[in-house]
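S., here's the first fold you wanted:
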Amino acid sequence: MKKLDLFLLKSFLGPFVMTFFITVFILVMQFLWLYIDELVGKGLSFWVIMEFLGWGSATILPLSMPLATLLASIMTFGNLGENNELLAMKAAGISLQRIFLPLIFVAFAISVAAFFVSNNLIPLAHNKIYTLQYDIARTKDEIKIPTGTFYNGIDGYSIRVNSRNSDTDMMYGVMVYNHTKNKGNISVAVADSGLFRSTPDKKAIVFTLYHGVSYEEENTRNYRDTTYRLQQIEFDMQEIVIPLENYAFQKSEDERYGNDIMARNLQQLHHDRDSIGALYDKTLVDQRRKAVYNISLNTPRQLDTAVNKGYAASFPLDTLVWESAQDELDAVQSAERSVQKAIQTMQSMDREALQYTFYLRRIDLESLRKFTLSFACFIFFFIGAPLGAIIRKGGLGTPVIVSALFFVLYWVVDTSGRKLARDGAISPELGAFISTAVLLPIGIFLTWKSTKDSSMFNLDTYLIPVKKFFAKLSMNKRKETGTTDGMLSRSGRSGIVFMGTPEFAVGPLRALVEGGYNVVGVVTVPDRRIGRGQKIGFSPVKEYALSAGLPLLQPESLKDESFLESLRGWNADMFVVVAFRMLPRAVWSMPPKGTFNLHASLLPAYRGAAPINWALINGEERTGVTTFLLDEHMDTGAVLFQQEVDILPDEDFGSLYGRLMEAGTGLVLKTVEALQNGTAVPVAQDVSALRPEQAGAPKLSRETGQMDWIRPARSLHNLVRGLSPKPGAHGTVVLDGQELELKFYSTAVLSDGQAVSAGVPEDFLTAAPGTAYTDHRTCILVRCGEGALSLIDIQAPAKKRMDVRSFLAGWRGAAV
């Protein structure tokens, strides 16, 4: 067995076993809820209840096995898709059909097991569960004598107890009437107190009465004797033994319900079908014979000889002319009686045959249903596996919702078909396999769509054509009104190749696609293993390109000849680059209308890989986005368009990143239009006005985020802004005499005067940089070279990001 097959088997069997037991547990709880009233209050042993639930769980396997198969298949391929493992297999040249193959064998094995469960286990379980249910229903409730009222739960006796000691179970004010002779209240025992207990076999209860009197009237009721004799006996202790019946649980014979259709296997059902079918055929033959002779359908016997009388006899002519009205009335009434008799005879025959046809329908239906469970498990795999591959969501969230929808459809159709077939409305064949007939086309369709890498469950698949339609309507309207503002029709243009990697590039790509531009292909970085689990990760641009159905290239080298040949094959007239690698001349010089890049700064300021971060770190109040033509050097090409963006006070990288992406999206569309129209005017970059810190924006390193507390608080605050939320500034503070390594995500600057006003001790103002002060409730201040830094959001080692209040709530560095 190949490692891939073993990996897929492990990925499937775990969810299958888990979901199988979860579904069994849920359905058993529902089963228990249905029969809870029959189980409680009868003194049943733990093992009897467990046996009842065990056989009950076997009867729900026709529901739990298909549902577990559906859930497990969706979860398996949903997890593979969500973790990009499925696409990695496809990228390695493995087709989806080959990926399905080992699990198809598993699904077939489950289907075979389902047949044996239906044919062997479920009939036995029905016999056992019906027998147990009968025995439990026959068992009477345990005797619980209430106080203050007469209790008539014991046949032939009426008992009253005034009160009871809950600690000793001693009853007080006991009165026991004996009605077993069916002569009224002729025997009663009254006692001051008493106890009662059941015998171990629950065949009798023993009342032990203390300090009482028993009364009994005797009357033979002879003809002339109307006297009554009263017997009164005082006692200090008396035991009354009352026999019980059906208070102890007793098991019946296992074959009590063995002849029920639900409790028969396939071989037994075929035998029953032959026996009842023979009786049915014999009944039909008898009914035909009776119908012939009783409904006057027989023909008179024809003589084969003629009697020669020696003379010419008269020939009696038949006629429809009645000699009198009375003769006609008598004939009509006789015919009506004959018809009514014939109708009654046919109805009687139909009722006689119905007892056979009803059982024959049920036998045929149950015989066919031995196979429907197997078909359901197999078809549900071909529904769940493609669905998981399409929706690419694992876990117990989306798969449970989708599985519930398909399973409810299966259950409703299957139940309806079974009832209709049992009542004779449809044939047993249709009733048994109607659910299969409904689900099979769905499974075939979903399997076909998954092999075509369908995005039928991706919302963008349906939104993009709609947006393109409305964009085209808007363009036509603007052309009719003469307000196109120089914009040309996008139809008929040669294509655009988009190159990008991070989320920052997704916005412009989406705008181009939804705006109706002809994006003929996308280039992004190869897949990489990420995280501790080393799972294959896709770039955000690739994820969007796949969802939009765009052609994709992921070259390891941009100088590879096969990549260059594929790029030329797209025949694009323009390349759009957003947050991608440096392109060699062979690439950026390829399109006739040029290659332009979107940069997140106002060039020539902050050339490099991290312009947004460095603009914040350096405390800039304004930045922007620039589109420029590529050349041999990094970010030095001629500028096409720029758009300024003000940096908000205390704004961090995460917030500014989103606003610049939005501004850059609009600028990309503007640049594409200008290049297509030939109205773009490139302007060389002028570096004469740059400040030294604006000369470059190098790639961030761990040393970049190191907090040097000798620096002014404002400078450190800007460093935190530029690195939040990722990668985050970090440094060591001395808190309550302990050195603590922290990450900083949000801070505020306090001058010395503001710190004193906030109640900070004066010795903090002269403390060494890096010393922290805390009130152990709401704030932490860190002394800097100039001023202090108030920590707002931080992260301690092996902890999650949290606000300073939450951090202090768990801080144990010093007593509060």
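And the second, which I think is the more interesting of the pair:
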Amino acid sequence: MDVQTALRKLDPELFRLIQQLARAEQLLVATDYDGTIAPIVDSPAHAYPKEESVQALRALAELENTTSAVISGRSLRDLAAMSRLPREVHLVGSHGGETDTDFEESLSQSEQHALSNLRHGLASVHAAMPTLNIEPKPSGAAIHLRGLEGAQRRQAEDAVARLEALSGVRSVRGKEVVDLTVVDSTKGDALNKLRRRLGQPTVLYIGDDASDEPAFASLGEADLGLKVTEAAAENRHGGESAPGAQTAAQFLLSGPSEVALVLSSVVALRRAWLFGKEAVPIERYTLLSNGTTTALVDPTAQISWLPHPLPHSNSLFSEILGSDDAGYFSVVPAREPNALPISQRYRDATHILETRWQQVSVTDYLAPVADADPAGSAVLVRTLKGEGEALIRFAPRPDYGAYPVRLKLTDRGVRVRGATEAVELVAPGVQFKVIQDGESETAVARVKLEDSAPVVLALILGAAENTAAAVLEDEAAVRAAAKEASREWVGKLSLPEQSRDRVGRSALTLRGLCHAPTGGILAAATTSLPEGIGGVRNWDYRYTWLRDGALTASALVDLGSAAEARGFLAWLETIIEQAAEQGLTVEELRPLYAVDGSPLVTEAVLEHLPGYAGSRPVRVGNAAEHQVQLDVFGPIADLIVSLARFDGTLSDSHWSLLEALVQAVANRWHQADHGIWEARRAPKHNVYTKVMCWQTVDRALAAAEEFGRPAGADWQQLREDIKNDVCSKGFNSTVGAFTVAYGEEDLDSACLFVGLSGMLPTDDERFRATVDAVERSLREGPTVFRYRYDDGLPGLEGGFHICTSWLIESLQMVGRTADARNLFSRMEALIGPTGMLPEEYDPVAERHLGNTPQAYSHIGHIKAALALSE
């Protein structure tokens, strides 16, 4: 069932309540049978349920934390036979009196006596009225009055009255049927019993007659009651004052067909909430970047992610996090809106993306920002060409879709009302209409395309009027300028022979994660893409980690681009100056900062989002900023030396920074920390951290020697002390390898840096043994896991691409070149069709995991290719 169909056909307020109900932690969906999932017919034996309702109840029963039930006046045996529902769907018969087929054996002596008297009375009625439809039940009988008129009707009513007067007999009147029973139970009682057994879930109950009123009356504020009645044609709202349908139910439905629609929509919304919508493979999302703003495009040319004005700001489109309600911007062929594109690719060595269908093409890019426009502004350009008709849906949802959005049509397009920054879609010649889309509004347009006259859509974020004016005046010229600048940058790189084009794309991706105005470098463009589907390992990576940023800049220096390294080190110097103003030294730096140097928001959860593939929580902010990560000094020191070698000179400021890094190591290298993997548990003496402390001093000594700077008198001894400490305490003779931390036996792929850093020579048996151990214990097929030990978090994760690259480099270093090339080929086979690499790969499910595009992964790809090209 298409949720859009339910949205179109159901009362808007009812749909909102269903949507809210579908997000309950525990959910029970219960219905009556006749008149709800099955139509009322003359012969009860022919009242078959609607197939859509049966499928929905089955589907609900299969969902996690979800239960479905049918509570009917029919006998349990009859209900099971007629409904054909599986055992997973709870069936309750006789208005709540029957919950199993051995029901009669559970009757009390007085109930059995009353039942005997009732059956004698029923036999007398049958003898007097042999054509009267009497349906026997374990606790009594149902007398059907449908079709009876005149004297026959009066005779039947009189008979019912005599039976109702029998001691111990109670009656429940429905639509043209009277149930006589010796059990004092109602559907409300049955519903409450189910609730208690299931742990008090939120309830949706659907019924159609007076026998369902006790169930409606039992519902709480968070529950929803729906009643099928002819009065629904005049009024949709229930309640005691509802005209012609006094009821405790909140809303009225017209019949079993509408019940089926409701149940199907609950299934779709519940499944979307629990698992997210059918998730696009993470590696199929493609990065757009202009050095200030990032966005992600899915394989159907839908903009699914666009934070603004900063990379860590609230996102305008967040559909990637599991819900259309969080915002998207789509362009599809109007004739076949569900058709898959025939191709999607970057235009040459650029961040300009082209998606093509048979008759429609869309070219997307973020325009270079004009100098005259204020910082933080941007223009997303979408150019439509072809011979057919395109359907445009513009559904902006600022703040991750947390609040309803209102749109205003303007003389040049569509504007978002009340946003914290100006957001306007300018589309000359395109006639939009605004439609209600849940609680928010969406702009929709159909436009006729011609190859000779492209349709240009310019989404202006902030006050980028000069950039927008240039786009609208000559979009082709703006695109050509963006293309040329990107191609010129790539053309100056020294790309390896090994996978030249793919390495060039990885370099472009890393450059796209660099924030040119500040010099900060993102670890990834997204938040909360899961490290395990359905798990809680969902983190916000839209910040600059000192470690990750330095490694990114260093990889680009290795390829011949130094501007990013200079920008990053200038950014870092600003961070250090700001810290000094607060009385903090280099050794007290946090492991990560926002790209603009501002404090991170407190790590929080966006409760309204279902998450990618139902993986919750969705987090913003990152609590790792408060951790102690003493390894960060090593990559920074390595970057400074790499840049100095590239430039042929070491600046005074960079030398001063190196000195400060060595002093920080001298003061703290002996301390425990949280390590590279940011374990959310007590600090340890992590081997990788100690190696990075060694690397800091080693690189500073190398810089002093190469560039004529005065090394500290104690630096060589400090380097030697750290190495001796690592070798004596980090190598575990029982395991036969370096392990994650002193005194522990668990392996960690980061321990490969005892050799990768140069601390141990490549022929050192301890390094070679560690390479073998990591390959043997942490590798699975094309990927390598960080570790296997319990890190204190529930759930599993995938292998890390950067760990795979470390093993590739290590295999190459120890002379196993063929094995290194084989693993590199298998790693490259996992790269997405447009060159994207997320953080992780699950070799069992054969799917990517984690935030994307991940700087670590592309760094690893570049470093491995360079190693294999030496």
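Why I say that: The longest helix spans residues 687-707. The radius of gyration is 34 Å.

Talk tomorrow,
H.
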